[in-house]
Design brief:
Blueprint (H helix, E strand, L loop, with lengths): L1 H50 L49 E9 L10 E9 L4 E3 L2 E5 L4 E9 L3 E6 L2 E16 L5 E15 L2 E11 L3 E12 L1
Antiparallel strand pairs: 1-2, 1-10, 2-3, 2-4, 3-5, 4-5, 5-7, 6-7, 7-8, 8-9, 9-10
Length: 231
């Protein structure tokens, strides 16, 4: 009996030793597995943490704008596009000396060989071009071939020259130059100087007196007195 009980104790002790060894081995295996699982999970955790962006650590480029100066210098005015206005030429307009007109008159020759220097009659006119300028073409007709006068004159404003009671005499002088054309077999074109005065006598009538100097072979001088109808 004693032997059997002793054998049982030995067997129980062996089984308990085996069970203890198995438990220790299983515990150590679990510890190793836990450690390995932790070691495998740590890199992923670090990756997740490293993948997070820290706003404070990001350096964004900042564009710096130059401040606008407080007092900017004015730009100089452009001179390339300056346009000078010119007086428009309107044939037949009024000038400072009055309206345009066409009329007839007499020519008193004061010396010369052409019709301008001889006595005859004349067709006279005034054609306003601008406020200050006018053309005054005329044809002098007499015993010789007609003489054509084509001057351009500077017209002066009408001013009062005399006043008697209710009559106010006003006059507008003019002066200019152009060409004189002697027609006929020996036609000549020569310089011309003219001067005169326009006197408005009615709303539709202008009296005029002028002297013409034409430089042909000799100096031809003619004094024209006439009246024109205003238009």
């Amino acid at each position: 009996m004693i032997k059997k009980s002793t054998q049982r104790q030995i067997i129980l002790m062996g089984l308990s030793a085996i069970a203890l060894g198995v438990g220790v081995n299983s515990a150590s295996a679990e510890t190793a597995l836990g450690a390995s699982s932790q070691s495998q999970s740590l890199p992923s955790l670090e990756i997740r943490q490293s993948s997070e962006i820290n706003p404070s650590s990001v350096n964004l480029p900042v564009q710096q704008l130059d401040p606008q100066p407080a007092s900017a210098e004015p730009e100089p005015p452009a001179t390339g596009n300056i346009q000078l206005t010119q007086a428009p030429i309107v044939p037949g307009r009024s000038t400072r000396s009055g309206p345009s007109y066409i009329g007839i008159g007499g020519n008193i020759g004061l010396g010369g060989d052409t019709t301008l220097g001889d006595s005859g009659f004349a067709v006279i006119s005034k054609i306003g071009l601008t406020r200050n300028l006018s053309a005054r073409p005329a044809v002098v007709i007499g015993g010789n071939d007609p003489t054509v006068l084509v001057p351009v004159t500077l017209d002066f404003p009408i001013s009062s020259v005399a006043e008697a009671g209710r009559v106010n005499l006003r006059a507008a002088p003019y002066v200019g130059g152009g060409i004189a054309i002697s027609t006929g077999s020996s036609s000549l074109v020569r310089p011309l100087i003219t001067a005169g005065v326009d006197v408005p006598v009615a709303p539709r009538i202008t009296a005029t007196a002028g002297v013409n100097f034409a430089f042909f072979d000799d100096t031809e001088i003619g004094l024209v007195l006439g009246a024109g109808y205003n238009f």
